[in-house]
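Design job #97: recover the sequence.
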């Protein structure tokens, strides 16, 4: 059914759980028509039902973002179903934990295919529709690992760095040739989602987020905001901004900080035994959830809501950031 007058059409990959699911439901609450894409059809159906309960419309397309034909089909399906794509959110992502020496080539390939190529495929797939419209917004979920790599997640860090580089080039091309198409990069710090229990682990235990931890609703809020108010980059959590500043100031100091007391290794290891093969090659057998197991640690982020969503205020935050106060936010 074509979109209704004034209805926003949004496509979200990785919509079965975590950030993608939270953003999809948030768009639904605002009356959007949401196209939900992921590998787990049952989880997508439950998300679609929740969107519909909130008054939005939902359309499910089972998709593996690592497949170009499937991503091309996703964009065509969404456009044919609703007649337009206003916002495309490249959110699907996964990881495998372990040293580069421990990881197999198949594991490395899969992370790059999903996290980096999946984003590139998404952009390529949606550009024809947005070109025909003359406008649109492409939102890409990167990570603080887009600006500062994380030990035990080398392929994930490489993919997230790659997303940032790809988007920077894309943004220049569109600014010259298609100025009506906006591109945003979202860079979350650690978020309390099922990502960590879904990730394959070579550490002998399940992974856990590097503190501090923030709730997925904060990222969903930023994604919806960016769809309505074009932004270049949005860092999620004061910790993300702090590590961005540390990396700009001195990468070697940041290395030293991470290695003190084996910090960067120990903080990624949970107390729970390794949960199995993870979601690299098969979707997890779950009906879909937004939050993970670390809600008791999660905190709000006044920094993000005040400064990242209103970049004109960012200079006011620099003094606090330099003093390390932002880390408390």
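Job complete. Output follows.
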């Amino acid at each position: 059914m074509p979109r209704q007058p004034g209805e926003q059409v949004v496509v979200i990959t990785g919509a079965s759980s975590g950030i993608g699911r939270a953003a999809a439901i948030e768009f639904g609450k605002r009356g959007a028509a949401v196209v939900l894409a992921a590998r787990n059809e049952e989880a997508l159906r439950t998300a679609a039902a929740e969107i519909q309960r909130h008054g939005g419309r939902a359309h499910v397309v089972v998709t593996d973002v690592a497949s170009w034909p499937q991503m091309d089909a996703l964009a065509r399906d969404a456009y044919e179903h609703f007649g337009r794509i206003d916002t495309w959110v490249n959110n699907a992502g996964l990881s495998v934990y372990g040293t580069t020496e421990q990881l197999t080539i198949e594991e490395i390939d899969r992370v790059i295919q999903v996290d980096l190529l999946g984003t590139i495929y998404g952009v390529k797939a949606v550009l024809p529709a947005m070109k025909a419209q003359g406008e649109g917004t492409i939102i890409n979920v990167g990570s603080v690992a887009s600006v500062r790599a994380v030990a035990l997640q080398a392929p994930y860090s490489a993919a997230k760095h790659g997303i940032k580089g790809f988007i920077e080039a894309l943004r220049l091309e569109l600014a010259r040739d298609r100025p009506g198409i906006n591109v945003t990069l979202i860079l979350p710090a650690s978020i309390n989602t099922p990502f960590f229990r879904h990730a394959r682990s070579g550490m002998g235990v399940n992974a856990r987020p590097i503190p501090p931890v923030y709730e997925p609703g904060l990222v969903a809020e930023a994604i919806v905001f960016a769809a309505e108010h074009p932004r270049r980059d949005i860092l999620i959590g004061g910790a993300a901004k702090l590590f961005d500043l540390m990396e700009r100031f001195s990468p070697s100091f940041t290395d030293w900080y991470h290695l003190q007391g084996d910090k960067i290794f120990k903080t990624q290891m949970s107390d729970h035994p390794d949960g199995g093969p993870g979601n690299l090659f098969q979707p997890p057998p779950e009906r879909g959830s937004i939050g993970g197991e670390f809600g008791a640690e999660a905190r709000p982020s006044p920094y993000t809501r005040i400064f990242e969503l209103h970049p004109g205020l960012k200079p006011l935050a620099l003094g606090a950031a330099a003093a390390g106060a932002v880390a408390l936010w």
